[in-house]
Design goal:
2 copies of one chain form a homodimer. Chain A contains 18 helices and 15 strands. Chain A is of the alpha/beta class. The first copy, chain A, has a domain of 256 residues: Rossmann fold, CATH 3.40.50.1100. The interface between A and B is large, with 47 and 47 residues.
Chain lengths: 454, 454
């Protein structure tokens, strides 16, 4: 018989009114991004070539909170607040004394947390008179979210989709086109960066970013939009964590550990930043666990260094954990986690020991994702199966210890466009792509020169 | 710039506590289903071979309301209450004075309204000690919903999926398998009904029903489950309409017309029955519009007669609009509307003039579905694009008349598994399958003999 469903719903008036900026609460000065041209701290003017003033202001703000524009909050109401569930059926399946909670962002129109930042990015660009946004997308979650958001604010949208994902998830492309976007398979023939990297046929986020930045740099009416990594993106995603604070209060529990998957870091940052700030202020000993694919182990095997965000070296040089901007991760289903680098903020938190990191294999993740689907009813995207794997590992550790620990994780999207991967898993033909230490070592030997070492 | 989002949310305590049975409010005695063997009114014992007592009781109840079991309400809380939106961006696009509202059922784990009945069906069967449910599915919405619900209550699930949809929507199959169900392409080789109809390679709901009923009839531990048509299915779906009554009260408006798409009638019935009952009691002049595909125009071109629900003539003979149980509708993307017959209740409402019916072409529906996606942000399944088409036609009529009419329609599911169809539409290669009056005339000449004429 079915166990009790426990869902925590907020009213629309509880959609956050502000985004949270963690920087003022962190000790020391943040390491600045560097100009790829001069290797000196990047001047705001350089970034204005591809970002509108509103976003740049959010990127650089010293304020601990940034007010969410009314137009953005209004669009958020299409799907926010999102539900928080207690995973009672999963707990029972694991026979664990742990209490497992998950925040579900898959109720958005594009099915993930990405519209939380796509909407304010489209809004600020439209406000600045920009006509078109160009971007890259891995699994397609970000590209489809931006296509959706551009539709709301009357902008055109051009998307470079990583080749491997383009082939695996044709319906993500259809979704973007249904919303009116133009989609290219990356590496494409329409940019220099694409033509230069044609040999990497399955593509990578690093290549697709170079293509999208190139398109934006050539047209004054076109701006670039990035779905993760940068400060303003993490800022926008803090609506997730803020809602979970209210919802865990409704549940009357305090998390012992908060788990999220990390690609560029926006999902993880969005979930954890509001909690981290609270902990930094009240001294509570919450643990934070960042989970990633064993095939692209940026946080667990990367080096902490200044590196480019893209393969062509066009983006600012940022301090982060990196496998080297020339590293092309092996093809895998969690396309959203297939990035050589990571958000400077999440990297710093890991470097400072405030966040732990752990890597999981693809088959392990799909096994846990299937267990989750069969118990909780929601089929997760491949990306959050890494968070599920972390949460399950924590729940089994609690069982081992005989402790009633409280676990909160981020279920950042559904897997409706990833069922070919579940097919392969169920048929026993899913591969565990291997991480190449050698390739990474070669890529890391190409880190930019003349930059501060960390 | 984005227009105001208007969403009406209910609290969990507003999930209905009862289902609504319209029968006691309708004049006259209902026409009984007939036994396929004797052509006499079917005895409850005959139905007990495939349905559990709890569902049979709900099927036959004379009570105007049936209490929802606590275990079912509890599972409903996984996704209910569902949101009601005002389609302000669509209104603006159409430049209409009409106010358009839509109830969105796509937030359920399987993405449509179908779990509203899958859950109570799985519950009643589990309670009766049944081990497995067999069923048919067209577009896969019902099969995936039943697979999900069986998972919640520990039942096995075997699904016969209509061949055309099986080929068009492979990920619906993957979804069912991820939830643990066994899926056959219908017509299959595992049943007599399947082998007998192997020549209809793209299958039909009528064939798939025969297959699933055959499997259930042969094993005492297996029951059959039907996703539409029958009284208890429409009963379960009345949670939709009840919630919309509360939500339209929040909006402070009363619908002038309520629009839903009709395949077997459960979505339409679920949305309209609570409103119809209110109107029958208070005499209000709300209009009801049932929309269907021009390629399978049961309500607009069918005959009102006693007919079988399946091609093999194994189900009870029911009074309904039918194209003949031997009619195999042409292949189309709205697989959930590809059924030769219709719910006896919805048929009677159309026959009595309480409900209007209108048919739309496939391309017209996808054009309207794309307009909806680009304005409202949700990509609709092909089935509700028929409701969208009806709503848009009504909104344009209101514009023509210069009247501020209030339109409510049911958006019964998302189109995440239907993007190949959107692809074809956007590429201009989507077909408009033709209805064959000749085939229907031939099928209708095979209506069962020795039954009352209507």
């Amino acid at each position: 018989m079915s166990d009790e469903t426990t869902k925590y719903l907020l009213g629309e008036d509880q959609i956050p009114t502000h985004w949270i900026n963690l920087m003022p609460d962190l000790p020391g000065e943040p390491l600045p991004p560097l100009s790829p041209a001069t290797k000196e701290p990047a001047a705001p003017e350089e970034l204005l070539a591809i970002f509108p003033p509103g976003l740049l202001e959010q990127e650089m703000t010293p304020e601990p909170e940034v007010e969410i524009p009314e137009e953005v909050r209004n669009a958020y109401r299409l799907w926010r607040p999102t539900p928080l569930y207690r995973a009672r059926r999963l707990e029972k399946e694991l026979d664990t004394p742990a209490h497992i909670y998950y925040k579900y962002e898959g109720v958005s129109p594009s099915g993930s947390h990405k519209p939380n930042t796509a909407v304010p990015q489209a809004y600020e660009n439209a406000k600045a008179g920009i006509k078109k946004l160009s971007t890259e997308t891995g699994a397609g979650q970000w590209g489809s979210s931006l296509a959706f958001a551009c539709g709301l604010f009357g902008l055109e949208c051009e998307v470079f989709m990583v080749g491997g994902s383009y082939d695996q998830k044709p319906y993500r492309r259809s979704m973007m086109e249904t919303w009116g976007a133009e989609v290219h398979r990356s590496p494409s023939q329409v940019t220099q960066a694409g033509r230069d990297n044609a040999q990497h046929d399955s593509g990578s986020l690093g290549i697709a970013i170079s293509e999208a930045v190139e398109v934006a740099a050539q047209d004054p009416d076109t701006n670039y939009a990035l779905g993760s990594v940068l400060g303003h993106v993490l800022l926008h995603q803090t609506v997730i964590g803020q809602e979970t604070i209210l919802q865990m209060e409704m549940a009357g529990e305090e998390p012992d550990v908060i788990v999220g998957c990390v690609g560029g870091g926006s999902n993880f940052g969005g979930l954890t930043i509001p909690w981290l700030r609270r902990n930094l202020r009240d001294g509570a000993k919450t643990r934070y666990l960042a989970t990633e694919p064993a095939a692209c182990p940026t946080l667990t095997k990367g080096v902490y260094a200044y590196d480019h965000g893209d393969i062509a070296g066009m983006t600012p040089i940022m301090p982060m954990y990196t496998l080297g901007h020339k590293f092309v991760p092996p093809s895998m289903h969690a396309g959203g986690l297939r990035y050589h680098g990571d958000s400077p903020l999440v990297s710093a938190l890991v470097h400072e020991g405030l966040v732990e990191a752990r890597a999981y294999n693809q088959n392990e993740c799909f096994r846990n994702g299937t267990t989750f689907a069969r118990t909780e009813g929601i089929i997760p995207a491949p990306e959050p199966t890494h968070a599920i794997s972390g949460a399950i590992e924590e729940a089994l550790a609690a069982k081992e210890a005989g402790e009633e620990r409280v676990i909160l994780f981020g279920l950042c999207g559904h897997g409706h466009f990833d069922l070919a991967a579940y097919d392969a898993f169920l048929a026993g033909t899913l591969e565990d792509p291997e991480f190449s230490q050698q390739d990474m070592d070669a890529a890391v030997s190409n880190l930019p020169e003349g930059v501060p070492s960390l």
